[in-house]
User: Fold these one by one.
Assistant:
Number 1:
Amino acid sequence: MPIEHQPLHDYALPHCEGDILQARDLRFSYPDGHLALKGVSINVCAGDKVALVGPNGAGKSTFMLHLNGILTGQGELKIAGMPVSEKNLPQIRAAVGLVFQNPDDQLFSPTVFEDVAFGPLHMGLPEAEVRSRVEEALQAVDMAAFTERLSHHLSVGEKKRIAIATVLSMRPQLLVLDEPSAGLDPRARRTLINLLRRLPITMLVSTHDLAMVAELFPRTVIMDDGQIVADSLTSEILTDTRLLEAHGLERPV
């Protein structure tokens, strides 16, 4: 029997019109009939830093893949005021920088420079602008000295930073990351947290790392069984033990 999810709190966030991301009653079923999104509605405004948490199978990754048109469901979805539709995909994919959990899914060129330059080149930018963007993106992730390195020879932490640089070079309005701290040792995790803290960009980050959430993200959204069941201040959600336990989460120590 499906679990009926009811909000377990009455927290309120400041009103937001969703000028960066606006989803209304977004629904999606996979070809096998599995209903992965069951009416997801969310607003994200410029400057928001939002954590998306929940158990495996909650629909987090499915939702994130809608944000740049990899998947398409029913309902309303807008990025920077543009409907996510086939005709808008080039602009949508420039506006949404999606970073996958496994950086090897994102890095496929021989060198770091070529990986980071890939997006700007396919935007049709002149060579001087491409080089400028690559330099800017690599500096933002503290990897400026790695331009000529072979991407597949880097550590997991270094690959994750390069993967972030590949989307920063397109100057997106929304940075979307899937499990960015997964598989990192403590030093690489701390480096990543410091990087994300200082990036001046709107973020939506799916993660199981609630200690990182507590440190970095003022707002937290909980998804479970294809629905948003909580959306509030991180400080309130992470102290609501009943809410966390109801959705397979543990309060960080």
Number 2:
Amino acid sequence: MVDNDVAMLIIRSGANTHRQWVLQDAICLIGRGDDCHVTIADRQASRHHARITRKEQSYVLEDLGSKNGTFLNGVPLTAPTSLNDGDEIGIAFAAKLSFVGAGATAPLPFDVEQPEALLKLDSGSKRVWVVGKELDPPLSLAQYRLLELLYQHPGQVVSREEIVHAVWPADESEGVSEQAIDALARRLRERMAEVDPDHQYVITVRGHGYRLQPAGE
């Protein structure tokens, strides 16, 4: 149980070593900066991206002029808004957090099991292992970013727009064609098939985007 007077954040997806944060302080800063309470290690997140302020018995979410936006339950946040138990906070396309209201029962950090047993990523070195074998030569940076994005959203379909924002720098993202995205996904499949030819990890969901399919499905 969460303390009766304190709420909590649970990370659902995104690059972070922590899985939950108790909102004990009056202000919780979210962003890429080292001084943030919730640090999102992703270039899509602004240094100071969003802020949660505790006001008596309520918690208010505010975007801090971030470049890629803050989302509340999938809707862009345009003004400070009070949070309710179960609300989903999106930090650009970099991370998703669940807000657990004071007195509520905290859910498990992840509802979907990560395909870790047969697929492993090291974000620091950008190394990838498939069925225990390292991809050599390593994936290109664009290929790694696509795989990492899919890996961070297990069982979910990732849209083409999300892929563009995650893979291409902001000054290059304008005008990225569907053909370019398809070619990147195809090459990633080929690289993974070099190690595990019997399974297709990157699945095209026509009209929507892509998802990662763990081996065994």
Number 3:
Amino acid sequence: MFFERPESGERAVLVHLDLASETQREDPMEFEELVLSAGGDPVAYIMGARTAPHPRTFVGSGKLAEIAAAKCAHEAEIVMFNHALSPSQERNLERELECRVLDRTGLILDIFAQRARTHEGKLQVELAQLEHMSTRLVRGWTHLERQKGGIGLRGPGETQLETDRRLLRARIKSITARLQKVGRQREQGRRSRSRAEIPTVSLVGYTNAGKSSLFNQLTDASVYAADQLFATLDPTLRRIQLANIGPVVLADTVGFIAHLPHRLVDAFKATLEETLRAHLLLHVVDAADVERDRNMYEVQEVLSEIGADKIPCLQVFNKLDLLQQPARIDRGEDGMPQRVWVSAVTGEGTELLREAVVELLAHDMVAEEVLLEPAQGGLRAALYEMGAVESEEYGTDGVARLCVRLPRADWNRLMKRGAEASW
């Protein structure tokens, strides 16, 4: 943005090292999927092993020569590392390889930039990109030098690098303020839903687990869904009707990925707030993925990082059509649903999923038979206004017998109002 770099292209050489110093290693196959999702064309995959990264170029001199040879042989225009590179390592590699070098974080940021559709999503992507770029600025040209003596040599008192940093800080400050405004608008929407007592169910899960396809099945929506990583970036909300519950807001969110950089988590917290405010999480899992357990662990890590690990969660094992197993509900020792097996593509098991969601949301529901005197018309009207009355009968003495069903919190609030007002 603020300095010249080699033009990037689509033909890419991929690099992955198994480092003994890493406790949690990246998945080379997942990295190739990330490159394909970004529109890249992997032409070579260089793999190796080291005890620790080289402080200057991350890889050793022999591996660096192998990467350079592969780049020349395939006429690649970019080299991508399945690791986080320091700014100096990235710059030294670009100088040695004479092409653009991108690390894992930069690649994820590029995918996010392609996927962002809403105003908020674009702001979040730009903020994350600017924060990533702020440590990678170099002086591309030096005509703005510190003041010197002589006519025509006096500059504004700062170098081009300092100018770039100042512009970056101003832009980051501006975007942060606009995101705070958008966040306040989202909070107003959440408060209005809370006042209307509408539960929120949020879909979470590893990227490409099938969340958007399942969202479309449950809501008859047409959210973009594709077999690629991070097909969904912006959150989408739809209202659905569930038996015995009424209206429920279903939220489709951005997918998680292993070792998601902290700056991305921070930048996308506004998007993930839909997850934080949910009454129930549907953890969508690609049941056919050999890395299923690892992906589930990574999702739990991100949920813990954003503070959503205490919210009730129902596991949804998706892509049942690839396993050739029947749809079913797995229950825990308490008899409550823990896992539902579904296929978002064929729709198999979605009715079971609805039943499980109703059961979990209704777990804290009150089903009572209420006797109301003729003078308690205010309480009767309040129950009807809340949609809590399932049936009503009148006795010969004028007493109404109502069968009601509503959330316990609403019941307690109603009883309190009745005690205070005597209806």
Number 4:
Amino acid sequence: MAFTNLAIALSDIQITYRSDHEILNVLKGVSLFVPQGEIFGVIGRSGTGKSTLLRCLNGLETPDSGEILIHNKSLLKATHQERCKILSKVGTVFQEFNLLSRRTVLQNIALPLEFAGASADEITVKSTEIAALVGLSDKHSAYPSQLSGGQSQRVAIARALASNVSLLLCDEFTSSLDPETTIEILSLLQDLNRRLGITIVLVTHDMSVISEICNHVCVLDSGKVVEIGPTETILLNPQHKVTHSLVSHLFAKDLPRVIHETLRNLPLENDHAVLRLTFSSNATFQPTIAAIIQTFGIPINILTGNTGHIREMTFGSLIVTLPINTTLNNGHALLEDILAYFQMRHIAVEVLGFIPPL
């Protein structure tokens, strides 16, 4: 990818923590690129290096090696003055709201402006504008103890934006919010992204957050990037086992108990294959199940299904069974042909296992 129009470019970032008893490699050669104006997600299980990666971007961590470019300027090679100028355009929203309890909403939002030496008039005007932008026009004089979790998070976001930042970093920022409030905050971030053109990088362990607003997603595991790409591609056709685990709850619900209890990894004679099919875009309008039955001459039993969305795109998911005797060579070949048929029609397919005839 060319180094133009990028908000962030990371190249081979390495971080190792050393103590008397152990050496911990936290980030192992992480490289990624975030275009200006994107909403970019970083996801992974706990302890995979997600927050450490974010702390590299806001200057709280310094890598052992590698390069960090923010708006095409090197953060690691910059002088102290240049570094401060680069980071002045980077705002961070942390997992905890970190509001000052003795300050009102407007006074909390004003903190970065005060540190920057803005005049009293400038602070009043800017704080009021930002409060309105995040939906807090009626809460100017309220104190943190009088706010809900969602309102507190809005204050934290407003405070991060107060210095006219062009890059907003969000670290597990929805973990303390209920699902309804989480959707409200994600909608707010989308609105800020569209209205201000601000680049947003969010770190989370929740794939539903990624599917709601992110253009691209990076999957971390044990300090390494294991998958990266457009959100639709990663979620609908995951390649790595960690990504499979993270996305599994977004699609078809759990198998019926009676099916789950008999599911096995290797087939016995006359077993049925259990497949998860994920439909998106034009694939949802194709009579694929009927075409499979007609083309291959086998019945298909639908066990369960559901629908969901990735940003504005709706997708559907089905779990089906196929009566294929995979203990025979022609059975294996038939299953492979059916899998290829689904993929040719742009339907993501995963073999969940095998069960005896229903």
